[in-house]
Amino acid sequence: MKVPLNMRRKSRNSYDMETASSPPVVPAASLELKTRRAQFQTQVSTLDTKRKQAIYVRRAFKKYGPKSNPNVILDGLNMTVPKGTIYGLLGASGCGKTTLLSCIVGRRRLNSGEIWVLGGRPGSKGSGVPGPRVGYMPQEIALYGEFSIRETFIYFGWCAGMTTQQVDGKLEFLIKFLQLPSENRLVKNLSGGQQRRVSFAVALVADPELLILDEPTVGVDPVLRQSIWDHLVQVTKDGNKTIIITTHYIEETRQAGIIGLMRSGKLLAEESPARLMEMLNVDSLEAVFLKLSKRQNMGLRRRSSILSSVTGVPPEVDADDEMSGEFGDNVSLSSRRRSVAVDDGIVPELPPEEKGPSKIQMIDPQHMKALVWKNFLWMWRNVGIMLFIIGLPVVQIILFCISIGKDPKGLNIAIVNHELNNSMDPCIPTDGCNWSLLSCRFLKHLEDRSIDLISYKNEMEAREAVENGNAWGAITFPSNYSDSLWARFEEGKDVAEWDVTYSTMEIVMDMSNQQIGQLLQRDFYISYQNFAREVTVACNYSKKYANIPVEFEQPIYGPLEPNFTDFAAPGIILTILFFLSVALTSGAMLLERNEGLLERSLVSGLTGPEILFAQVITQFVVMVGQTVMVLICAFVVFNITCEGNIGWITTLTVLTGLCGMCFGFVIACACDNERSATYMAMGSFLPIVMLCGIIWPIEGMHTVLKCISFVLPLTKSTESMRAMLARGWSISNSTVYNGFISTFIWICIFMTLSLLLLKFKKG
User: Fold this and answer.
1) 137 — phi, psi (to 5°)?
2) Percent of the chain predicted with pLDDT > 90
3) CB proximity list for 246: less than 8 A, separation 6 or greater
4) 54 vs 41, 212, 239, 242, 602, CA distance in Å?
5) CA geometry: angle 664, 749, 110, nearest 5 deg
6) Given this model, what pLDDT does residue 359 score?
7) Where are the beta strands (DSSP E) in 489-596?
């Protein structure tokens, strides 16, 4: 039997304010009795009464940071929001209000505890979260600045399942009610207060059953603020709509049906404003908050203990205090979570989840329409950015074709020619079958290879020129070079050792640069061969007489003199499109998430797959344009070798770009800000470029790196592209189709990771 409050006060007249100095101690012997009493009080509230509540929060615990030094945001918080009322959630900045609201709308997860919203746990079939039953206004503006007010309403209205006509009907009322400018004004051109009003209007547009407003009246004119409150009171009169509102203006919540005073992750009180002021005998809510905060600072943890320490009424055991474990550490978490058994009937702490739709629709056509329209509209409003995005890969492939793979020109070679009277004299070559000054004849062929010859007096000066970096090599001709070379040619095996020695030019080189050194060696060999052929033919000998007994026939694939451009072009084309797609998609996703747009869209009922697939559709269109421009520039303008089918080459390039888009989604979902995303993208760029055979053959790598290389996303596709471009192989060849298969596999892996991260990575 429950004792009336006035009788309890008489029986406890010895209770005084001294108990407020420390938390009430509950004897162990009476703990079980008090627990049963609390269970009984919980049991007597029927299931129908529970269903009149819009939100339950039980034992909510949320922390950030390492286990050794955690930052506790919510500390065993209990909260009950009745249907059809305005619930004012008050507290200083940093007390956990925004985190609590994010948990209620399902965008953050509790470390422990339970939340029940509109029929079930957030995200379950029976819950109204996420979906159009909830209108959510986050603390950020969370609007697209490039959209007009009407376009903003249309997007969020479509997300909520409304038609354009329904949106226009609500738009007229909300613009007039919130004193907004013309519907055609862009959001970015509005003042801060006007932007917050548009954000507030977006939360109202779908006429939601539950409205969650995080500081909607900040920066709003006092008259308009009162008008907003009057409207909120009006819409809750029929009892069908529930509002949770946080605000910095404590006194304005006098019009709320119930308020929760939050501090240090706990609710100090949860009562109507008038009742709280009456209980504490004060005339302002700020005074209420101040008194309760002081009592909390004295070490009181239970909500009822804090209130009783101020009012002088001894604390009662209530269900919320029992569930929050505020009697002390002796009550285990498992015992606090168990169901209550009375008269052999089991009643759970939270109402059972309502039945939701049995068939879950992963992709909603209405949502896809809104998302694709939004993405293309953003592109249209940012034409300059889009032109830069499309033109950037073209600029990069132009720079590659101009700067990479061409033979170096104007390389200096030091010459010491002792055949001349003075090595500094002009070296004039002879013509026809003339065996004099053969050194000058050879140097003419060397000059034809675009090599600059600089004469020096002696070998020491020439060597110093190489050592000082003024020349890449030094060539020295003996004084009787031509005579000795003629003797070697005429006498064959009977030539004197003297002639063999003096018919040899001496070359010393700077080989610190491998590419230049090897190209110069090639030029020396080719120049000498051309010089020898010219002399032998002029003297009526066969040109083969001057060749070494090795003849390279026409190659099966590629030219006789291959260039590095053709080797590197396949990998460079794929790398440009892959990493540009990574940057664009990750940047777009991070922009929406960091500005609160992604969270707001997800709360409105959009799903992760819908958002990703809409991004794929719009970015895919851009990427196809980039691919066409790059391939035209590479194959038509710069004549990069292309022996294969252009259709399959284009397909593989597009798929590689799509793979990069999916990798960008992974980065955006895994990283919290642009800086960490940049680090992740840059960290993956160098390993992929170095290990995928783009700038150096895989066959020249370490065995361990070869194994790693084969599982990277660009290795097989680069091999496939190179096989099609240089060899003309078709899709039936294993090297070619393995590139397609590998790319498809990586697309599936990246998309799966993106969906999982988007679904499960919550704060």
Assistant:
1) -115, 105
2) 39
3) 88, 89, 90, 91, 97, 98, 101, 213, 214, 215
4) 20, 12, 11, 7, 20
5) 75
6) 53
7) 506-509
